[in-house]
Structures are given as structure tokens and as C-alpha cells.
Write a structure and sequence with these properties.
Oligomer: single chain
Number of domains: 1
Distance between the termini: 25 Å
Strand order of the largest sheet: 1-2-4-3
Shape: globular
Mean pLDDT: 96
Radius of gyration: 14 Å
Structural class: alpha/beta
CATH superfamily: Metalloproteases ("zincins"), catalytic domain
CATH class: Alpha Beta
Low-confidence stretches: none
Length: 146
């Protein structure tokens, strides 16, 4: 996993690497994960997330995390994470940026592997799997967060 910090962030890249290694041990995730899978996480600001959201999804607004699957075997794709959104949402849900960023990175990782939340059944499944992956790292989002 490559981590690019486009903005100053107090969390070391090793934190997210450990998170995803643990998430990859969840049986359903492991079943979809190609051997030696790689991805890039870019931690950036609202302006860049807005630009990416507009360019690739046609939505002219910032968002918290975006996933860009590569379609290549072995390289899962890219994640873009808005650090300001991490701080805002962590504060709003009364948990720290470590928890919020872990939640968003895990969410994006599952998107790279093909999970989605376009309908209620998919949303329930993705929520269940997100919580299971986070639980492997001992991370529990605040009540009501997802």
C-alpha cells in the first residue's frame, strides 16, 4: 500500500496499512482479494475531493472518500480521502480521526473489491462487512455513525 499525504496528517501510513492487512483477513474480503494486491491511498483536502467527484462522478461537491478501481489484476486501485472531512465527521460523531479515517479507508477498500451500497440490501451487507473489518483491528465507530 502506498500512502501519499498531500496535506499534513498526524496519522502514520503504517496505521492504515495495518488496518487493511487486518481487514484482508475477513473471510469474505480474502476471497475477493488477489494475491499481492496493492492500492494507493491519497490523503488530501476537500478541494481535491470536490474536483475528483466532479470529474469522475459528475457531482460538484466535496465528499469524504472516493474509490477508483483499476481493473488490473493485483492493483486494486486508488482511494482519495479528505482529511478535513475526517476531522469534521470524527468531531460530529465524537470519535477521533483515527477511527473516522479507518472507517472511511475500510469503506473505500470494500468499494475497490466490488461491494456497493446502491440499495438497502447492499447497504446492510456493506455496513456489516465494514464493522467486521474494523473489529479485526479493535476499532468501533461511535454509535449511530454507520
Amino acid at each position: 500500500m502506498t500512502v501519499v499525504k498531500a496535506v499534513p496528517v498526524p496519522i502514520p501510513p503504517a496505521y492504515w496499512r495495518r488496518l487493511l492487512v487486518s481487514a484482508a483477513e475477513e473471510p469474505e474480503v480474502a476471497a475477493r482479494l488477489p494475491p499481492d494486491a496493492e492500492l494507493t491511498l491519497r490523503v488530501t483536502g476537500d478541494r481535491e475531493l470536490r474536483r475528483l467527484n466532479r470529474a469522475f462522478l459528475g457531482e460538484d461537491r466535496p465528499t469524504d472518500v472516493l474509490s477508483f478501481p483499476s481493473g488490473e489484476r493485483g492493483y486494486l486501485g486508488d482511494l482519495a480521502l479528505s482529511w478535513p472531512a475526517v476531522l469534521r465527521q470524527g468531531e460530529a460523531f465524537c470519535h477521533g480521526p483515527e477511527v473516522e479515517s479507518a472507517l472511511l479507508v475500510t469503506h473505500g477498500f470494500l468499494h475497490l473489491l466490488g461491494w456497493d451500497h446502491a440499495d438497502p440490501d447492499q447497504e446492510r451487507e456493506m455496513t456489516r462487512l465494514t464493522l467486521a473489518c474494523l473489529g479485526r483491528s479493535g476499532i468501533a465507530p461511535a454509535s449511530g455513525r454507520i
